[in-house]
Amino acid sequence: MNLAKKITGLGAIALLSIGLAACGSDEDAGTAGAGSVGESVKYKITGIDPGAGIMEATERAITDYELDKWDLVSGSGAAMTAALKKAYDAEKPIIITGWTPHWKFAKYDLKYLEDPKGSYGGEEEIHTIGRTGLQEDLPEAHQILSNFSWSEEEMGEIMIAIQEGEKPEVAAQNWVDANADKIALWTDGVEKVDGDEIKLAYVAWDSEIASTNVMKIVLEDMGYKVTTVQVEAGPMWTAVADGSADASLAAWLPLTHATYSEKFDGKFEDLGVSMTGVKIGLVVPAYMDITSIEDLQE
């Protein structure tokens, strides 16, 4: 099977929406009256940007589980959550690429499909990575970034605020203002600087929007002039590896970004783990009567 042909573009989202709308309102949400869950969603998995590690893992799952009829729809995180909301509000079936931490698990009753073949790996970690030479050039920032760690609950406060309409920079500032003790742990023993420049690269996942905006404020409070740049996963890793970005708080390891960490081995520094117990996989509303990726074979 040619996996490249299994990923369709943004136009497929419209087809998915039409397919969902075609299901009668009186049909059972678990099967939508179709002969299989695949038929009920037109054999579509709603994904995000094609460069994301979770998309690569989903391609792997399509192969591992021999889901030859299925297509992976590429788009964006925002398009994915919009499709989820539309389906969920109507209690229609939908299958999405999902990850935690993410605000959608607080807003909707969702579940991961079991992955007995391990296509998505086990629990992941979010790492902070820096360019080679960062410690010598920007030692204070290097120390702060190395100290950075927080919990899913702490990150979730910012993600939910943003989802409810707050601007990311405002939500991050409110969190920083309310968590001085936490910030003090990251900056303990670090001297302030005077206008040193630093660039942070990040992907447009809600989790990384939260962490990057928080770190931007923390570094600015320590005297740095901070630039942030939003890119896809591949360009993010490339920027850190070639030095055009100083650091990123958005490296998901060991599986999600394994391709990039292996490709750029020796060209970046792993500054440490900022969050443990994160996860990726296929996600469905809890009202759907399926429990495993194997159920998609039917």
From TrEMBL:
<keyword id="KW-1003">Cell membrane</keyword>
<feature type="domain" description="ABC-type glycine betaine transport system substrate-binding">
    <location>
        <begin position="197"/>
        <end position="297"/>
    </location>
</feature>
<feature type="domain" description="ABC-type glycine betaine transport system substrate-binding">
    <location>
        <begin position="37"/>
        <end position="177"/>
    </location>
</feature>
<keyword id="KW-0732">Signal</keyword>
<dbReference type="GO" id="GO:0043190">
    <property type="term" value="C:ATP-binding cassette (ABC) transporter complex"/>
</dbReference>
<dbReference type="GO" id="GO:0015871">
    <property type="term" value="P:choline transport"/>
</dbReference>
<dbReference type="GO" id="GO:0005275">
    <property type="term" value="F:amine transmembrane transporter activity"/>
</dbReference>
<protein>
    <submittedName>
        <fullName>Glycine/betaine ABC transporter</fullName>
    </submittedName>
</protein>
<keyword id="KW-0813">Transport</keyword>
<feature type="signal peptide">
    <location>
        <begin position="1"/>
        <end position="21"/>
    </location>
</feature>
<dbReference type="GO" id="GO:0031460">
    <property type="term" value="P:glycine betaine transport"/>
</dbReference>
<keyword id="KW-0472">Membrane</keyword>
<dbReference type="Pfam" id="PF04069">
    <property type="entry name" value="OpuAC"/>
</dbReference>
<dbReference type="GO" id="GO:0015226">
    <property type="term" value="F:carnitine transmembrane transporter activity"/>
</dbReference>
<dbReference type="InterPro" id="IPR007210">
    <property type="entry name" value="ABC_Gly_betaine_transp_sub-bd"/>
</dbReference>
